[in-house]
Amino acid sequence: MLKSFLKASRFRVIPVMLIPVALGALGAYVWKGEFHPWLFILTLIGAGAAHLFSNMVNDLWDYKSGTDIAAQGTEGAISTNSGFLTNGTWSIGKFKAVTWLMFAIAALSGVALSLISGWPVLVFGLAGAFIAYFYVAPPIRFGYLGKGYSEIAILLSFGVLPVAGAYYVQASELDYRALLLSLPIGLLTTLILFNHHFLHWEADRQAGKKTLVVVWGEQRALRFSRILMFLAYASLVLCVAAGALPVYALLALLTAIPIYLVYGRLSAHNPSVAYLPLMGASLKATMNCGAILIIALIVQGLIQ
């Protein structure tokens, strides 16, 4: 059951949520001298459950809308869902039950943290829940609009909200440096989600899912993907310049090299399978960059 749950929830990508939570908490430790281990653990549990809820509720609505079925039936398209609904591994009822269990865990964690750290924690949680549910759920469906709303939603969900929220849980106040610190990891995670659309963009077009890749076309979207990568690493330099990160955090710039090399191997038009290395490189860049930033903040906190 545990193995099935890990696959159904796509647990392997949970670090993209836990990393920004860690960065926010470490920001409070470095800038304010505040760090409460039990609050940090509860924040990790709540944010992690919220992320898994988001993964699963997106699968539910993409399955209901026919997007995932279209991806299976489109030649060359690569499905990125768990496959538990499209392959009939779990019934819809079972999938829904586990999905809403994750929501319940996230909600209870948020309420507990708000009672300890203050009501603004609920604002962060409710904003995240709103984006997580309506990313593909009607009537809003951020992921289907194709006007950049999807990318903004991801930047908020995996950057601004978890970093600033985790900082607030520890310090019970806000700081502009937390916003700056959210940009590198938030933009890199946005890059992952943007690049994954290349794997099945033609199937998305058939299903009426208007991602920016569908709206702009492959060539223009690929140019934007490169720009997004540049912005992520430029924001890292900005964080160092503004004092949100120590100068040795610039070592994280090295994580841009592998993904930059992958871009160099892509042409204007590519089969879906050609984007798998780009997806892998995007994920590794986010994980490795996040890990270096975490280490940099820990070192800064210990030596200052």
UniProtKB/TrEMBL annotation:
Molecular function terms, GO-annotated: prenyltransferase activity
Topology relative to the membrane: Multi-pass membrane protein
Top-rank taxon, per record: Bacteria
TM helices/strands, residue ranges: 12-31, 37-54, 97-116, 122-140, 152-170, 176-195, 230-263, 283-303
Subcellular location: Membrane
Pathway recorded for this protein: Quinol/quinone metabolism; menaquinone biosynthesis
InterPro entries, A to Z: UbiA_prenyltransferase, UbiA_sf, UBIAD1
GO biological process: menaquinone biosynthetic process; vitamin K biosynthetic process
Any one Gene Ontology cellular component term annotated for this protein: membrane
Keywords: Membrane, Menaquinone biosynthesis, Transferase, Transmembrane, Transmembrane helix
Listed PANTHER family: 1,4-DIHYDROXY-2-NAPHTHOATE OCTAPRENYLTRANSFERASE (PTHR13929), UBIA PRENYLTRANSFERASE DOMAIN-CONTAINING PROTEIN 1 (PTHR13929:SF0)
Protein known as: Prenyltransferase
